[in-house]
Structures are given as structure tokens and as C-alpha cells.
């Protein structure tokens, strides 16, 4: 069965069903017509015989019999009432202050409908509806006679009253009173208190839903059953519920936000629950599987839905990529919102580049829309790069120039295999065959060494001593070995050595010009002119 909710411009949304319907639109939906409209349509179609139907159901049956003989087609049409009644219940909890009363009404109205369908109570209600309808018909007959007496030019006056308690639940206004104080409406209690009360209402709703799960499926009202087989099938179904949360953690402190997350997890465990959450909260976004997130964004003045998950149907691939993202330290909020993802070789660059970028460009990487992640010479990182590129994320790698030869995963063929353009997406540090550490001057290295790693022989570090290491095949390894062996406080690894150096920089001019140019290019990649 295909069902949709259709909302024409400036009109209320309607629930539609794709089904076989009469070609003539006037013959499609009799449930929504008043008795007077039904009679008028029957007259128009020439169906009003000598004995007119005595009630609304009779008019509907008359028109339905005619419609069944008319030409039909497959088309979207308003869904019958019985289809709408069988759809899952909808519970909406908003984030605004005024929604507390609405939240109370929402859950109590849901309980009202459950109680309404209980067999014993439902029989009594139907009997009461029938009795009230009968009494009103007598009143209506007197009214019609009075109108005919006063208006002799009329040939016929008819009033057909109907009574239904199905939508009779009106309101549930919440009143508050503190110790020794007078009662006040919840909207006068302050935003923070109102949100805490909303949270309490949602928690109670969660307990009610759990109780319903234990109790089993709700009974199906007799008037919903077309036949015994259908009734038995429906009896086996759980009372499905769709819960909508709109900004659920607005105005809540961190501890209450955690309660909201726990509440959401408890509700989602229930087998009959499906949930949608509209939120701008990074805490909520980062707390769920990336495959469960639908990202709404504006493109060319139109709202576009985006899912950052593999649509090929390979769940194992989705899970593997999610694990890679987690291992790389990339949260869901980063994956959804950052404009450029830059892969660097490892922890040395991951620690140093953010400090150098901020000093050179006058802003942090996040402000430029750039997310940094360490490849660690891991082919899985390039798989993740391809995944990002396939989802229209801009990806680049910033690597030492010597890694192009030493690390095969950064070679031309490997990058092309994973969807990256070596000439556009690969930025190399250190010319053609050097590395990040080589870009800093001898004077800069000597200055940080004298400040952090005093020599055991008491002699100062000099620029000439640093320069002598540049002739070695791997400058960074030779420099690290010198600092470790000549000082009791020497760095234990390259990440610490480089971080201590760049942490001493105070002015943009201290950032190597080559890095400065790379940073400018990264900003351009993250903020292209076509955005």
C-alpha cells in the first residue's frame, strides 16, 4: 500500500492513498461531505428516487453504488477514514515553552483514544451515541416542522444529527503551585521550569508506552473491521506509535540534556516505537549512528534532504566507514557541516597544523570550515576519503613531499583509485623531497631546544649544529635523535618535538611561507566561489 501526506501550497495537508478510484473526482470521497452535499450530488447525478435515504449512511451507500459502476483509474486520492484510523498514533513533543500544555494534551489524548477502544467501554459509548442521536432526531423533527409552518414556500426541510465521542477530548491545562503560593499557568512559570516539566511529562509518556508494550496490542474497534480475517490480523499487531521531538533539549542544562538522551534511548528500544527528532543540538547529533541522520540543507532556495550513508545497501560497508570515522575522531556534526576534510600523515601534523593555521590565517580551522584527520599511512583512511567525496564533500591531503615516494598510499595511482585528483587534491610540504620539520629554520629549532631541552654538557644549542643535521637522509629523525641523546628532557617522539616548536611561535611571520600558501589554498577549497 502506498500512502503519502500531501500538502498543496497554502492548503492544509491531507493523507492520500494510491488506489483505483473513479475518474470523476466528485465520486471519490464521500466521507468528507455533509448530508446536504451528498443530497445535492445525488440530485445532480439523477439518483434521487421516490424514496430518499433516511440517514447519511444511506446517501453514502447510494452514491457509492453509482461510483462503483463508473470508469476508474489508478491515482492518488484522499485516504478513507478507516485507513487513517489504522495508522500509527502520533505523539509530538515540542521544544518551545508554550508546548508544555500541548505535551500534556498529546499524551492524555493518546490515552483517551486507547481507553475509547476498550471493548466494554466502547460498547457503552456506542450505545450512548445512538441514544443521543435518536433523541436529537426527535428534536430535529420538531424543528423541521416549525420551520415548515413558518416558511410555507418550502417543500422539504430535513436535519440529520449525528453524535460521536471519538474526538471529544478537549484540553488538559496544567496548573502549578509552589508551597505557600497560588496556582499559576505553566507559561507563567519561566522557561527553565517549563522545560523541566516537559521533560517530566515525556518521561511519564515513556512509562505509559512501556506499559502498553507489556500489556500487548490495543483492541480493534468493531467499526474498523471489514471481516473476521482482517480483524484477526490486526489484533496481532502492536499499537504502533510515531514520536516526534522538536528541539527537545532547548533551555535545558547539560545534566537534563543527558536525561533527554537517556529517555530517547529507552523509548527507541520499545518494539512499537519509531522516532523522528528535529534538532540543532550537536550533542544529540553526535549521540546517534550517522546512518540514522537526515541532514536538511538549503540549496538554490530549495530544501534538500541528505543522508551521509552508503545507499548501496551494504550494511557492513556502512558500519566499517562509521568505525573509521570514529577512529579518526570525526563526530557526526563535523561530517555533516564542515566544508573541507584534510587528511594529514599522522599525529605530528594533526597536532601542529591547527596551531600553525590559526597563527598564519588569524582564525581556527573550524572557522574556515576545515576538518583535519590523520591518515596514519592507513589505506582505510583513503577509503573514507572516497566515501566523503562520493557524498559531495571536498577532500584534500596535506603530506610531506618525501611521503609520495616512501608511502605508497599517497602515490598517484593509489589516490586516483580512491577518487582523488593528485594534482588538485594533494598538497605536498617541503618542495619535491622534504618534510614538515625541514621547513623551520635552524634558528627556530635552536631557540626551542635552548628553552625546553637543555644539553647535559651545559653547552647551548646552535643554529650551526641544527644545520649539520640537514645533510642526513631523514632530517627529522636525525634531529629527534640528537635532542633525545643530548638532553635529559629531550622529546620522546616527533609529535612532541614539533608541537613544542610551534607552540613557541607568536607572530604569523614565524610560520613558513610554504605552509602559509598551502593554508590559503585550503581556505579557497573550503569556500569556493560557487557557494
Please provide a brief summary of the model.
With 531 residues, the protein is of the alpha/beta class.
Characterise this structure:
The structure is a single chain. The protein has 531 residues and is of the alpha/beta class. The chain folds into four domains: 3-86, no CATH class; 89-288, no CATH class; 303-429, no CATH class; 441-511. It contains 21 helices and 14 strands. Helix 12 packs parallel to helix 20. It is elongated, with a radius of gyration of 36 Å. The two termini are 41 Å apart. Residues 344-402 form the OLD protein-like TOPRIM domain.
Keywords, please?
14% strand; 531 residues; three-stranded antiparallel sheet; alpha/beta
How large is the share of residues in beta strands? 5-15%
Query: Can you tell me the number of structural domains?
Result: 4
State mean pLDDT (0 to 100 scale). Answer: 78
Q: Would you identify the regions where 5 or more consecutive residues have pLDDT less than 50?
A: 217-237
Number of strands: 14
Quaternary status? single chain
- Biggest sheet record: 4 strands, parallel
Q: Please tell me what the overall shape is.
A: elongated
Helix content: 40-55%
How far is it from the N-terminal to the C-terminal residue, by CA? Answer: 41 Å
Strand order of the largest sheet: 12-11-13-14
| Number of H/I helices | 21
Q: Structural class given helices, strands, pairing? A: alpha/beta
Question: What is Rg?
Answer: 36 Å
Amino acid at each position: 500500500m502506498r500512502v503519502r501526506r500531501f500538502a498543496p501550497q497554502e492548503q492544509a495537508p491531507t493523507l492520500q492513498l494510491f488506489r483505483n478510484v473513479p475518474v470523476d473526482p466528485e465520486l471519490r470521497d464521500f466521507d468528507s461531505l455533509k448530508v446536504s452535499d451528498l443530497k445535492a450530488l445525488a440530485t445532480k447525478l439523477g439518483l434521487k428516487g421516490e424514496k430518499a435515504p433516511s440517514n447519511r449512511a444511506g446517501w453514502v451507500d447510494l452514491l457509492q453504488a453509482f461510483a462503483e459502476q463508473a470508469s476508474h483509474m489508478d491515482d492518488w486520492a484522499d485516504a478513507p477514514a478507516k485507513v487513517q484510523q489504522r495508522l500509527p498514533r502520533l505523539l509530538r513533543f515540542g521544544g518551545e515553552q508554550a508546548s508544555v500544555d500541548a505535551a500534556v494534551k498529546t499524551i492524555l489524548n493518546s490515552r483517551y483514544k486507547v481507553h475509547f477502544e476498550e471493548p466494554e467501554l466502547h460498547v457503552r459509548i456506542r450505545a450512548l451515541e445512538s441514544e443521543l442521536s435518536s433523541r436529537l432526531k426527535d428534536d430535529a423533527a420538531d424543528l423541521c416542522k416549525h420551520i415548515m409552518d413558518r416558511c410555507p414556500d418550502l417543500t422539504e426541510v430535513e436535519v440529520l444529527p449525528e453524535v460521536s465521542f471519538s474526538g471529544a477530548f478537549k484540553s488538559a491545562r496544567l496548573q502549578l503551585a509552589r508551597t505557600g503560593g497560588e496556582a499559576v499557568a505553566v507559561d507563567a512559570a519561566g522557561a527553565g521550569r517549563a522545560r523541566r516539566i516537559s521533560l517530566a511529562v515525556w518521561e511519564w509518556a515513556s512509562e505509559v508506552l512501556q506499559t502498553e508494550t507489556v500489556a500487548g496490542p490495543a483492541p480493534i474497534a468493531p467499526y474498523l473491521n471489514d471481516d473476521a480475517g482482517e480483524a484477526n490480523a490486526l489484533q496481532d499487531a502492536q499499537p504502533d506509535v510515531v514520536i516526534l521531538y522538536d528541539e527537545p533539549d532547548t533551555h535545558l542544562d547539560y545534566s537534563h540534556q543527558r536525561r533527554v538522551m537517556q529517555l530517547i534511548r529507552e523509548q527507541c528500544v520499545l518494539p512499537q516505537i519509531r522516532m523522528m527528532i528535529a534538532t540543532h543540538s550537536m550533542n544529540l547529533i553526535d549521540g546517534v549512528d550517522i546512518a540514522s541522520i537526515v541532514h536538511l540543507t538549503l540549496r538554490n532556495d530549495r530544501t534538500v534532504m541528505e543522508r551521509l550513508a552508503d545507499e548501496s545497501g551494504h550494511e557492513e560497508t556502512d558500519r566499517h566507514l562509521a568505525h573509521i570515522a570514529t577512529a579518526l575522531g570525526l563526530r557526526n556534526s563535523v561530517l555533516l557541516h564542515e566544508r573541507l576534510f584534510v587528511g594529514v600523515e599522522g599525529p605530528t601534523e594533526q597536532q601542529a597544523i591547527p596551531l600553525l593555521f590559526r597563527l598564519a590565517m588569524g582564525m581556527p580551522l573550524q572557522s574556515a570550515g576545515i576538518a583535519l584527520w590523520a591518515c596514519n599511512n592507513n589505506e582505510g583512511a583513503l577509503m573514507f576519503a572516497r566515501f566523503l567525496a562520493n557524498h559531495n564533500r571536498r577532500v584534500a591531503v596535506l603530506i610531506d613531499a618525501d611521503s609520495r615516494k616512501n608511502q605508497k598510499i599517497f602515490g598517484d595511482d593509489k589516490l586516483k583509485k580512491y577518487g582523488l585528483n593528485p594534482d588538485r587534491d594533494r598538497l605536498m610540504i617541503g618542495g619535491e623531497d622534504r618534510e614538515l620539520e625541514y621547513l623551520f629554520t635552524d634558528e627556530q629549532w635552536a631557540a626551542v631546544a635552548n628553552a625546553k631541552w637543555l644539553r647535559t654538557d651545559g653547552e647551548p644549542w646552535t643554529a650551526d649544529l641544527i644545520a649539520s643535521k640537514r645533510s642526513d637522509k631523514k632530517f627529522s629523525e636525525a634531529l629527534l635523535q640528537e635532542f633525545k641523546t643530548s638532553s635529559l628532557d629531550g622529546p620522546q617522539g616527533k609529535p612532541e618535538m614539533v608541537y613544542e616548536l610551534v607552540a613557541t611561535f607568536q607572530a604569523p611571520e614565524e610560520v613558513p611561507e610554504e605552509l602559509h600558501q598551502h593554508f590559503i589554498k585550503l581556505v579557497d577549497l573550503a569556500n569556493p566561489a560557487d557557494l
